[in-house]
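seq:
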Amino acid sequence: MNGGGATDRSPVPDADVCIVGAGPAGALVADRLAADHEVVVLDAGPRFDPADRLERQERAIRPAYDRPDVWDGDPERDAHSASGEWFYPLNHARIKGIGGSTLHWQGMVMRLHEDDFDSGTERGVGPDWPIDYADLRPHYAAAERELGVAGADDNPDAPPREEPFPMPAFPPSYSDGLFAEACEALGIDMHSVPNARNSETYDGRSACVGYGTCQPVCPSGAKYDATVHVERAESKGATVIDRAPVQRLEHDADRVRAAVYATPDGTEHRQAADAVVVACGGVETPRLLLLSESEQYPDGLANSSGLVGRYFMDHLFAGTGGVLEEPTRQNHVGFLTSESHAFYDDADEDIAPFKLEFFNYDGPSPAEAALSADTWGDELLEQLREDYGTHIGMGALVEQLPREDSYVGLDPDRTDDHGNPVPDVHWNVGDRALRSIERANEIQASILSELGAEITWQVGPDDTGPAYHHMGTTRMGTDPDASVVDPHLRTHDLGNCWLVTSGAFPTGGAVNPTLTIAALALRAAEDVRDAL
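struct:
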């Protein structure tokens, strides 16, 4: 086996399943299939040593390091372009390596609302999904158990549940209590945030110990990351090969035959398998398909519809913050403990769904404030006493509708460290999302004003940015001419190839996508198993 810390990166003979990508989707599929099938997982990045996480945490809190430095980003390997109307800083929030984006994610895991699956019918805009909430509901429950979710059934606007969360919710923070008074006066419901982090010991991992650096690194392992399921799959016999970027997929007209991958010594290998699962995210998945063009598929593999890479979506951020004339305990908690979906289901043709977030970490930490100051000694101490501890802020995630002119393509001029065209994220944002950001800002300002805060900053439609949730580039549907994968994420064009990523989302909703990715991965794993 090539698992564990071994450096043998040779192909595995007689493999049943080859999975490209060791993030949450690939790891869950590998874990579900490894006990009964020969499974190989290929990932472009390294296997990180858990013992290094404290050192990575130190990088995270030092201003000399940018966020990609924490997880060893490589400018040449990770090169990209951004040719769209809106600049997309792809490398700010992606990791190549075993565990993928869950190594640095914040860990919020909500279910999509029922109307998110039927946006065209219920809201008058966007396509309907080919599945509805009821189809995914049991898989949502399974995903919550697999990841370990702490939550409470206290969201009056959430879709119906079938069982309690695996762990109790984290209690509201001190600043949540301040927000609660204002929201109650305005008639706005607040509720807990489902978190994929342990509020108590779970699945052999400790409860959260409050390091506060959850994004971008959790040293304790209390926050879920996909190495949990990678290691579980390996214990069942799976082979995981790191630093093995897949260059292309070899195929004939209706089947993928092998994944061709490179290794650090400069050689290429061919991993054949009966089934191939591509699970390397909403950017690298369409890129790999486009790189695998052939005589049968001159516009890219699995792209008879012409939609591979199209309909790239992300969630947009809206924020408002300020200061109070009382302590807020800013930076006391490194993740969100309260939110509001009170306005989510008001969505229609003009205003998108959005959720409100109540920050526990607005304003600088004491270390950040000290490092950015130009004073020392007693003067610095007095400045910290004056400036620290009274900041308060809110965020919001806003849905972006799918647009065909928002896409992931290949840059014709720039190549990566293997000579392949880099991904070009051509991101465009529509007016509905921008109007919705304005609406979210209005509500945020009303809450802060009710609190008596002095508003000092706002992120609105003119300076919004992405949440780094890549969606929509391999759309799910029943019509092969209008989608890339079927409702079980199997490609329409190739009978043995599944694309298990958030690229399958026809619409994005306004909640963090990882729980839906996990639920779809578990559902797709059943289809792969049935096909073998």
